[in-house]
Amino acid sequence: MPRILLIEDDADVREGLEIALRHLGHEVLASGDGETGIAVVQASTPDVVVLDVMLPGADGFEVCRRLRSFSNVPIVMLTARGEDVDIVAGLEAGADDYLAKPVQPRVLEAKLKAVLRRAAPSTSGGPMSFGDLVIDRASLVVTKGNRHLDLTPMELRLLLELSGSVGLVLTRQQLLASVWGQDYLGDSRLVDACVQRLRAKIEDVPGDPQLLRTVRGFGYRFGP
Questions:
Q1: Residue ending a domain, choose from 118, 152, 175
Q2: Among the ranges given (64-73, 122-131, 206-215), the one the predictor scored with the smallest mean pLDDT
Q3: Which residue among 84, 99, 105, 115 is buried most deeply as judged by most CB within 10 Å?
Q4: Domain count, the chain
Q5: Residue 133's domain spans which residues?
Q6: What's the average model confidence in pLDDT over 143-172?
């Protein structure tokens, strides 16, 4: 079973989810604030993090950014009322997915299982070169100018999917299905936020992308 880290300041919510997830057979670590949660990730390397937006001190967005500075652990953010501003900010900070409160334990468990499935990219194919960007599909290593790029599992899956269809336009819904899972009922903000983060790592000038291009009104196309 995966090791889950739950970062939630509301003691009742935290204890309720912790008990429920353990009853479902999961190993659960719990933290009531972001600083402690960051320390737990550094010390215990959980398989997935459930991160509340509203935390004392450093909020969930800041905690997510700090986690992304040293870890690629999958992150699911919990947002109050599912407000668009929280969802977009969380995805841009590096979260892999989100759930709106109140959260049902079995729904959360299903979301965590889906995130973990998607965190295991396909390994088919060999190295592909695009200028100084090299994608080794067998070893799942991506380099740019001989420098290793530290991609999150979702960023890597997205890059593998796009680079496997060079020159073709893939719609956001196609990418949601192939990268985020066939049964995923999400929205295009997941794709757009991940594209933005990926461009910051693979493009020379992220604001003027030469590899990962937007085809307005349709989706994205990869290739020079």
A1: 118
A2: 122-131
A3: 115
A4: 2
A5: 127-222
A6: 91
**Rounded Cα gap, residues 166 and 128, in angstroms:** 11
**What pLDDT, on a 0 to 100 scale, did the predictor assign at position 127?**
86
101 with 169, same domain: the answer is: no
pLDDT digits (tens, 9 = 90+) for 23-64: 998 999 999 999 999 999 999 989 999 999 999 999 999 999
60: CATH = 3.40.50.2300
Those residues with Cβ within 8 angstroms of residue 27's Cβ, 6 or more apart along the chain or in another chain: 1, 2, 3, 4
Taking the CB of residue 143, how many other CB atoms lie within 10 A of it? 15
CA distance 19 to 21: 6
CATH code, domain carrying 198: 1.10.10.10
Pairing relationship of beta strands 27-31 and 3-7 according to DSSP bridges:
parallel
Compute how many other C-beta atoms are within 10 angstroms of the C-beta atom of residue 210. 14
Q: Contact at 8 Å (CB) between 223 and 166?
A: yes
The sign of the CA dihedral 171, 116, 63, 56 is: positive
